[in-house]
Design goal:
It is found in: Membrane. Keywords: Membrane, Transmembrane, Transmembrane helix. This is AI-2E family transporter. By secondary structure, the chain is an all-alpha fold. The protein has one domain. It has twelve helices and no strands. Helix 2 packs across helix 8.
Length: about 350
């Protein structure tokens, strides 16, 4: 009889555990389903968090050097950001306003000329002889993609201002939103979760600072170098190169394509010089500027970063590529703090930790 009772008890425990596993798996599946349906909203919210983190970094910088309360530091930080934006707009805005529309108009023509010259290389014409209208088959989808991309400009502008608005609300009272997040976990774990959230915020601030340093260096020196080489629209191309540098590793490669196409429209030799310029600038940025001027800033391993970016592209397209690296920074901090440190017991320095 006791043996039967033990078997029934063991069966009951097994049944409960099985039901718990099934319930958790079902919950994860439901959450993943809703996450896939709301991926655009989630990415927009995360972009807003990045904006809030960046503004909060400026607020902390003001409080470090000035005896100001947070509201006054926030007002000063926003004023400084607005003055910098207005100053840059007045300084380079008129020239960029002329060059950017010209750049958008000439890129398709430069791409088609590149395709035509590519077909004239030895052996290329024979290899593509069996393909009907190869230049159109290759070039048309790319041109259509760029056309569709720029046709969504108004939607992108609306999303941009929405991101700024949400980010502004988040930075007004971050403690309130963090407190609401902490209420979702057991009281005994709230202090540790608060520490992890602080680590994540610091890691994101350092990562954003590293991107800002890289973007400024690449944008300025690419623009100056292209102007010295005589490449048309050097300012606009430098701006494109600087903006794409926000995406580590893949961004500079993508940002170089417009420059190479426009330079190739002038001459293949000029395109070669532009390629050498990009190589020199990126080499200096990676091996000299960042190690000297940005010590202690957050940088992820290249292979890991590229893999994460490819995964982001597969899940959410362009937005996934842009935001995949900062999302990976948050994930790494969480993994190191909550799993490696707390569960495994290994004492490692968390990414971006002091």
């Amino acid at each position: 009889m006791q043996e039967i009772e033990r078997n029934e008890s063991a069966l009951s425990r097994f049944t409960r555990r099985t039901l718990i596993v099934i319930g958790l798996a079902s919950l994860v599946a439901v959450l993943m389903f809703f996450a896939s349906q709301l991926i655009d909203v989630m990415l927009l919210v995360f972009a807003s968090i990045l904006v809030a983190v960046a503004i909060d970094g400026a607020v902390r910088l003001c409080q470090r050097y000035l005896p100001l309360s947070r509201p006054w530091a926030l007002m000063l930080a926003l004023l400084m950001i607005c003055l910098i934006m207005v100053g840059l707009g007045a300084l380079i805005g008129p020239r960029l306003g002329e060059q950017l529309p010209q750049l958008l108009a000439e890129l398709p023509q430069a791409f088609l000329q590149f395709l035509n010259n590519f077909r004239e290389l030895p052996g290329i014409e024979a290899a593509m002889a069996e393909v009907e209208e190869p230049a159109q088959l290759i070039g048309a989808p790319v041109i259509d993609y760029f056309t569709n991309f720029f046709s969504t400009t108004f939607g992108a502008i609306a999303s941009f201002f929405l991101i700024l608005l949400i980010g502004f609300y988040l930075v007004l009272s971050p403690a309130k939103y963090i407190g609401n997040v902490l209420l979702l976990c057991p009281p005994a774990k709230r202090d540790r979760l608060a520490q992890v959230l602080c680590m994540q915020g610091r890691a994101l601030r350092l990562w954003l600072l590293s991107r800002l340093v890289s973007m400024l260096f690449v944008g300025v020196f690419v623009a100056l170098g292209l102007a010295l080489l005589g490449v048309p629209m050097a300012g606009a191309l430098g701006l494109v190169a600087g903006l794409f540098t926000f995406i580590p590793y893949l961004g500079p490669v993508i940002g170089a394509i417009p420059t190479l196409l426009i330079a190739f429209l002038e001459s293949p030799q000029l395109a070669l010089y532009a390629l050498i310029l990009y190589f020199v600038v990126e080499t200096l940025e990676s091996n000299l500027v960042m190690p000297l001027a940005a010590k202690g800033l957050v940088r992820l391993p290249p292979a890991y970063t590229v893999i994460v970016q490819l995964a982001g592209a597969a899940i959410a397209g362009v937005a996934g590529v842009i935001l995949s690296t900062p999302i990976a920074v948050v994930a790494v901090v969480t993994l190191q703090a909550l799993y490696i440190n707390d569960v495994l017991g290994d004492d490692i320095e968390v990414l971006g930790g002091r």
